[in-house]
Amino acid sequence: MDGRRLSYLDFGGPGPVLVALHGHFSEGADFAPLAEKLGSAWRVIALDQRGHGESDRAGDYERSGYVGDVRAFLDHLGLTRVALLGHSLGGVNAYQFAARHPGRVTALVVEDAGAVCDIGLTFAKNLPPRVATRDGLVEALGAAAPYLERTFRERAEGWGFSFDAADTVRSQQALSGVHWHDWLSVRCPTLLVRGAHSDELSASHARDMAAQRSVRLVELPAGHVVHHDQPDAFAACVGEFLASVGGVATL
């Protein structure tokens, strides 16, 4: 894909395909619990987006690049129409792809991502540099460690992450902005999931997003990473929604 490798995890199974897009500070492996809970009902395929996981770093992290990666990824797999799920960064990527390629998305799940994004850069800028031990990295991250542990990598220079912090800052800067046009342009059935304690998507903004398009809004007792804080409830509401709208992927 433009000379870059994109890595992905195919969790297998006989069901229709659900493509999952992770958020910043994460990677496709974060959806392993969701894939397990959906069982054979859905075959979850999770992409490591540019600069994350085992995918190559990119020259830019603009909106068009992320959306173009989704299109190239589906083309590579020979998937013409899919159900699409995204968290945070991945949620915006998912609804922008659905808006710009309406014939290719049968159903959409957006997890704690807004139509207006004002991303704080403090966390990314203050991530610890390489640390001698894994335990040292966990200690340096404190309460955030459980959310990032799937990205931990040991290199010659010590323990760090599968993403580059400077790239993340660039990506967050490019994500910040007003994306109402894309959100309102989506035509497929949509589920919006918000964490009741989220510091990224306010309750009022989520209600406005749902009302503007008459989409289904579910709020779960969780923070920003709903699929981590409430894995059973998240999988249940995603599975019920997809079953209700028949979001079947086609080859």
What does this structure look like?
This protein has 251 residues and is an alpha/beta fold. It contains eleven helices and eleven strands. The chain has helices at residues 32-38, 63-77, 89-100, 122-125, 134-141, 145-148, 165-175, 180-185, 203-213, 226-229, 231-245; strands spanning 8-10, 17-21, 43-47, 82-87, 105-111, 116-117, 152-155, 158-161, 177-178, 190-195, 216-220. Strands 1-3-2-4-5-10-11 form a seven-stranded mixed beta sheet, sandwiched between helices. Strands 6-9 form a two-stranded antiparallel sheet. A two-stranded antiparallel ribbon has the order 7-8. Helix 1 (32-38) packs across helix 11 and helix 2 (63-77) crosses helix 3. The chain is globular. The mean pLDDT is 95.
Quick summary:
The protein is of the alpha/beta class.
